[in-house]
Amino acid sequence: MREPSVSAVNHDASGPVKDAGPVRTLIIGCGNILRGDDAVGPVFVRHLWERGLPAGVRCADGGTGGMDVAFQMRGVRHVILLDACRSGSEPGALFKLPGSEVEHLPPLAGINLHAFRWDHALAFARWLLKEDYPETITVYLIEGQHFTVGEALSPAVEAAMHRLADQLLAELRDAAA
């Protein structure tokens, strides 16, 4: 797999910060910032930017733009996706699954861009990127409680998000050392 030819651009509270090395890990937060716990992905990305990212790690706010997610994965070794879910589990429950379990979806015939989700983006990226598709994709889902427009993250989802941030940043810093 080729390394990306451009340098990483990370963000902190003041905006973009140029990083010296190639992007090895891309963390994408998906969800709708306006819909309560569905905002956990974009909020997570902003939280990581504020805390600081290890060298070779970049974050992207996937928002609700699934197709854009596919293009951002080109040539990156490891992609980590975070989104909210509704499985009927306890709010704040954290699920981890390999991207390989959701990247081979049925044909996307008839799907429109407004219904194009991150799982569709994985299937699309597998087809589009071929040898530039990430070696590893890890998906984290946090069980949401409230999805009403205008609500903040529920306490259970926010706590799970912070635990995941602590865990991932420790793992990524260890891997970079």
List keywords for this structure.
two-stranded antiparallel sheet; Rossmann fold; alpha/beta; 177 residues; disordered N terminus; 4 helices; 30% helix
Protein described:
This protein is α/β, with parallel strands linked by helices and 177 residues long. The chain has one domain (9-176): 3-Layer(aba) Sandwich (Rossmann fold), CATH 3.40.50.1450. The chain is 30% helix and 24% strand. The radius of gyration is 16 Å and the shape is globular. The model is unreliable at 1-20 (pLDDT under 50).
Helicity level, as a percent range?
A: 25-40%
Q: Mean pLDDT score, rounded?
A: 81
What profile does the largest beta sheet have? 5 strands, mixed
**Tally of individual helices:** 4
Tally the structural domains. Answer: 1
What is the fourth-level CATH superfamily? Answer: HybD-like
Compute the CA-based radius of gyration. 16 Å
Shape label = globular
CATH hierarchy, class: Alpha Beta
Low-confidence stretches: 1-20
Distance between the terminal alpha carbons, to the nearest Å?
A: 22 Å
CATH fold-level assignment? Rossmann fold
Per CATH, the architecture is 3-Layer(aba) Sandwich
- Strand coverage percent: 15-25%
Going by helix content, strand content and strand pairing, the class is: alpha/beta
How many beta-strand segments? 7
Secondary-structure blueprint:
Layout: E1 9-12, E2 15-18, E3 25-30, H1 40-51, E4 57-63, H2 66-72, E5 78-85, E6 94-98, H3 118-129, E7 136-143, H4 155-176
Parallel strand pairs: 3-4, 3-5, 5-7
Antiparallel strand pairs: 1-2, 6-7
Helix pairs in contact: 1-4, 2-3
